[in-house]
Amino acid sequence: MPLLKVTGLSKVFQLGRNKTVTALNNVNFEVEDGEIFGILGPNGSGKTTCLKLLLGILFPTEGSISIMGKNQFDVEAKSRIGFLPENPYYYEYLCGTEVLNFYGRLFGMPKGLIKERTEYLLKLVNLQDAGKLALRHYSKGMLERIGLASSLINDPKILILDEPTTGLDPIGCKETRDLLVRLKEMGKTILLSSHFLSEVERVCSRIAIFHRGNLLTTGSLSSLLNQYGADNLEDLFVKSIEKYDVELESGKPVAATD
Ligand SMILES: Nc1ncnc2c1ncn2[C@@H]1O[C@H](COP(=O)(O)OP(=O)(O)OP(=O)(O)O)[C@@H](O)[C@H]1O
Ligand SMILES: [Mg+2]
Predict the structure, then answer these.
(1) Where are the beta strands (DSSP E) in 32-119?
(2) Half-sphere CA count of 30, side-chain side, radius 13 A
(3) Is the Cβ–Cβ distance between 200 and 194 less than 8 Å?
(4) Is the CB of 217 under 6 A from ligand 1?
């Protein structure tokens, strides 16, 4: 059984009385236990919408999601997910330790366990010397790392990361990438949305490419490169999108955006 199974998932946003946006259109994919699954696509292609549907933050217009055999609204299934949003809001007057304590309390974790996890996670993300520092003094890279630590407070089985390296310098990107590989080795399953194709190429075992709310293709990098006759992930990304747009113009696929 796949850890996560998405079937016929669609999301239509109502904009005013007569206008709608189809952010996701009949999307199907599966994520296996222990893999890092890359979610790619141009701006506005539906990546964040898809992740929010998996988290139960948004309700699907159509379709279903199974997480560890349960639906996405199941409390037990949700408690096994960690999430780092695209633009996290940080309470800048809290220090790193207080932020992790806050998220631990939201999960209803006992005090002793929060303390233990906080110490462990600050070390894991290399912020052990910044635990007492207020977040307003953190650099962008440090903020991203405390965000990652917060998403791990509940020791999740599935980690959903929406563009975790945006705005990071090359060292910060590498540190995050190394951490993702370590987390995978610890048995976590990771969904990673990213615009950094080289990062995705390095860490993901399988990828999905979204465009205009449609899932264009999904599979291992090597099989997709073969399928599209592409040299690398960038080439594959461009080719899959161009192919869709050409077909769209000739009237073949269903338009996803109204
Ligand atoms: N709450 C909302 N109400 C109306 N439209 C929305 C809402 N959320 C997303 N959309 C629309 O749905 C489409 C997909 O947006 P989404 O944020 O999922 O894209 P994305 O692939 O994550 O883009 P990016 O790479 O820029 O983060 C866009 O057209 C967006 O404007
Ligand atoms: Mg997004």
Answers:
(1) 36-40, 62-67, 70-71, 81-84
(2) 7
(3) yes
(4) no
Pocket of ligand 1 contains residue 46 by CB under 6 Å:
yes
Give residue 225's domain range.
1-80+158-163+191-258
Which amino acid residue places its CA nearest to atom 19 of ligand 1? 44
- In tens, the pLDDT along 179-236 reads 999 999 999 999 999 999 989 999 999 999 999 999 999 999 999 999 999 999 999 9
13 pocket-lining for ligand 1 (C-beta < 6 Å): yes
Give me the CATH number covering residue 224. Answer: 3.40.50.300
Q: Could you say which ligand is closest to the alpha carbon of residue 20?
A: 1
Q: Is residue 258 part of a domain?
A: yes
The answer to whether position 248 is within a domain reads: yes
Three-state DSSP class for residue 147: helix
Is residue 87 within 6 Å of ligand 1 at its C-beta?
no
